[in-house]
Amino acid sequence: MENKVLKQMRLGAKIKKLRELKNITQDYMASRLNLGTTAYGNIERGTVKGLSVERLMSIAEVLGIDFAEIINYDLNKPYHINPGQQREEVPGQVDEFYTSCIIAIIEQGTQDKKMLIALLSNMREANSRLAEAMAEHNKLLHKIYAKQQELVTILQGRK
Questions:
Q1: Which is higher by pLDDT, 118 or 94?
Q2: Do 21 and 76 sit in the same domain of this protein?
Q3: Which chain positions lie within coiled-coil regions (predicted)?
């Protein structure tokens, strides 16, 4: 399997080339994607960790092309893209596209799973600390209550 960083860099280079072919600026892409220009530039440089399928689909939408065009774009064969032009589907390319999509979804799911596990671990730890704090709080409340009872007894004895 290819190095993930290299895949991301190539994907970013493909996005950049397709954007340039459409004469679209990075500023325009960033604004349409609700990103800062630097954040969008990081996508094109391939320095973004875990570019999601949803983000890739949004990029394709702004470029006015099909999601598959980004994944299947051959950087060695520069060409102009005509919006609305029918693409001849070659069976191998379709299979490769779906395989790429499935791999991207699985990778994103794996990342999401790791993030959820870390989040749950942090929540367990926070819950444990909260339980300890509550136990300490209850001890202090019992001490305060006992002191109040002593004070009431003393005050009643003075009457």
A1: 118
A2: yes
A3: 116-143
Q: Which long-range contacts (CB under 8 A, 24 or more apart) does 70-74 make?
A: 70/11, 70/14, 70/15, 70/18, 71/11, 71/14, 71/97, 71/100, 71/101, 72/96, 72/97, 73/14, 73/17, 73/18
Domain residues for 106? 101-159
Q: Is residue 94 part of a domain?
A: no
Indicate whether 8 and 83 sit together in one domain.
yes
CA–CA separation, 149 and 153 (whole Å): 6
The predicted pLDDT at position 149 comes to 92
Q: Number of structural domains, the chain?
A: 2
- Residues 6 or more apart whose CB falls under 8 angstroms from that of 120 comprise none
Last residue within a domain, chosen from 87, 115, 142: 87
User: How far lies 98's CA from each of 18, 63, 66, 80, 127, in Å?
Assistant: 20, 20, 13, 24, 42
Flag the least confident range among 39-48, 91-100, 107-116, 131-140. 91-100
- pLDDT attached to residue 82: 47
Q: Please report, rounded to a whole number, the percentage of residues in the chain having pLDDT higher than 70.
A: 80
Residue 38: the pLDDT is: 93
51 and 126 housed in the same domain: no
